[in-house]
Amino acid sequence: MQITFDQVSHIYGKGTPFERVALHDISFTIPSGSFVGIIGQTGSGKSTLIQHLNGLLLPSAGTITLGDTVITSKQRLPHEQRRNIGLVFQYPEHQLFEETVAKDVAFGPSNFDLPEAMVEARVKEALEIVGLDYEKVKDRSPFHLSGGQMRRVALAGVLAMQPKVLVLDEPTAGLDPMGRQSILEAIYRIHQEQKLTTLLVTHSMEEAARYADYMLVLAQGTIALQGKPDEIFMQAERLRELALDVPETVAFVSRLNQLLPDKESLPNSVYREEELIAHLLERLSVPKEG
Amino acid sequence: MLQNIAIGQYVPGHSFLHRADPRSKLLFIILFATLVFLANNTVTYAVLVAFTLYAGLLSRLSLGYILKSLKPVWILIVFTIILHIFLTKGGAVYFQWGWFTVEERGIQQAIFISLRLGLLVVISSLLTLTTSPIDLTEGLERLLGPFGRIGVPVHEIALMMSIAIRFIPTLMEETDKIIKAQTARGANFTSGSLVKRAQSLIPIAIPLFVSAFRRAEDLALAMEARGYRGGVGRTRLHKLAFSWRDAGIAAAGVLLAITIGWWRA
């Protein structure tokens, strides 16, 4: 589903002493099927931005187009459209409430009047996608799971609606490195298998570099930079001004390039860890053969 | 969504009212409330209204924002007006239709009693708009201090109050977040039968309780870890101190009391 923001602004608490402009004149287009990394400091407007995607917040000005649906300050998103956009909030495990895991995951799909058998099939599928054993967890209380498992259940709760767009607000916050990696891998797998359009809000340049094919860098409610990751990472100076860092792979490549003669320097497009390792191994193995 | 509630919402500032001692503000409000009930004619009500408007100016908040505090009670005020117009009899008859009359006293009482309600709400909102909850409970704790000697757990009550007040915005934010998260999962809180709508509150209430208990536990742990063990022997970082502003408030109180006492019928 293609997503377009056209000069979108959002103002909180209009007409009170607490009035605050959270988004100002945001414009971008995300083609269907992209994996978009949204990066920015705390308070840069990331969370406000993503809440516009399924109509939880309406823009104060401007137009948002989701596929064929248009949202403006006066035009809400129809209820049945909501399930197309799966929004996973920060700490989504805080929204769990049912007696059993299966019931909780079923909450989303049942809200859209699907037949029971279909709901059950979806619950099972969603739990397997996030790497939980349906038979083992379905009758357990979600409150007796570990933090990482709770997060998976909450993620499954959104996936069970089978959205076309998946929006995740820092899905790895507060998890250990292992948990981070496996939850992100699961998300990336679904993204590819189901051809979703995915928006990942993150603090970590590493996470963005690893998965995103397009990036939005937010600062003070405006888009400071947008483009393909390698284009963004080339502007290391600008990123530093925004108190952000390039991923370590990019920093490594640029330091390596300083040492190498110009014609042997590594291309900027190599910034994913595996690609970089593969690239370097290939380089290093050539002289041996020759 | 839940940000439109003005009553009890502190707006930071540096006005005369912001910087006055919470104790003098609290005492003044008690006096003012008494005076509002003593007022019984046009002159005394006019004095009180003028004074309240002046106090509003002193807070340097916009008048519209202060008057917003009347929002939760306007139904009560309208109801009072209607009751008095219809039921209070006496004086000239302005309107008659069968047994039903609107009389002079009725109109007068309708105006006075609704003013009375309005003034009380506005002046107490001025207190909460210009006093941070921490200052407010500290002021209360000090004012109630003497009752500690007869076994009233003043410090604990004040602490409970400040924690409760401190957590109102947090829990509201939390509620807002949970409502959004469940809405994103397709929950619908506004349509369906009454039973269905009541049921739809479960997905909000349970996560909210869970998080409130988690917060309470965290807070208790954090307080104990920093050596909190009740009010005994506790010193304060910010000591309350009276200043010329409080002398001003006291003078205003005395002046107001004399004026009302003199002019009331």
TrEMBL record, chain A:
Per the record, membrane topology reads: Peripheral membrane protein
Entry keywords, A to Z: ATP-binding, Cell membrane, Membrane, Nucleotide-binding, Translocase, Transport
This entry carries the following GO cellular component terms, namely: ATP-binding cassette (ABC) transporter complex
GO MF: ATP binding; ATP hydrolysis activity; ATPase-coupled transmembrane transporter activity; cobalt ion transmembrane transporter activity
Domain ABC transporter residue range list = 3-245
| PROSITE patterns xref list | ABC_TRANSPORTER_1, ABC_TRANSPORTER_2
**Enzyme Commission number(s) from the entry:** 7.-.-.-
User: Would the keyword Protease turn up in this protein's UniProt record?
Assistant: no
Q: Which family does it belong to?
A: Belongs to the ABC transporter superfamily. Energy-coupling factor EcfA family.
Q: Which NCBIfam families match?
A: ECF_ATPase_2 (TIGR04521)
Q: What does this protein do?
A: ATP-binding (A) component of a common energy-coupling factor (ECF) ABC-transporter complex.
Q: How is this protein organized at the quaternary level? A: Forms a stable energy-coupling factor (ECF) transporter complex composed of 2 membrane-embedded substrate-binding proteins (S component), 2 ATP-binding proteins (A component) and 2 transmembrane proteins (T component).
Protein name per UniProt: Energy-coupling factor transporter ATP-binding protein EcfA2
TrEMBL record, chain B:
- Family listed: Belongs to the energy-coupling factor EcfT family.
Where do the TM regions start and end?
26-53, 73-97, 109-130, 150-168, 244-263
User: Mind telling me which GO cellular component terms the entry cites?
Assistant: plasma membrane
Q: Its topology with respect to the membrane?
A: Multi-pass membrane protein
Question: What molecular functions are annotated in GO for this chain?
Answer: transmembrane transporter activity
Q: What is this protein called?
A: Energy-coupling factor transporter transmembrane protein EcfT
Keywords, A to Z, come to: Cell membrane, Membrane, Transmembrane, Transmembrane helix, Transport
UniProt xrefs under Pfam families:
CbiQ (PF02361)
What the entry lists under PANTHER family is as follows: PROTEIN ABCI12, CHLOROPLASTIC
User: How does the record describe its quaternary structure?
Assistant: Forms a stable energy-coupling factor (ECF) transporter complex composed of 2 membrane-embedded substrate-binding proteins (S component), 2 ATP-binding proteins (A component) and 2 transmembrane proteins (T component).
UniProt main location, coarse: membrane
Task: Provide the function of this protein.
Answer: Transmembrane (T) component of an energy-coupling factor (ECF) ABC-transporter complex. Unlike classic ABC transporters this ECF transporter provides the energy necessary to transport a number of different substrates.
**HAMAP family named in the record:** EcfT
InterPro entries of this UniProt entry? ABC/ECF_trnsptr_transmembrane (IPR003339), EcfT (IPR024919)
Localization, UniProt: Cell membrane
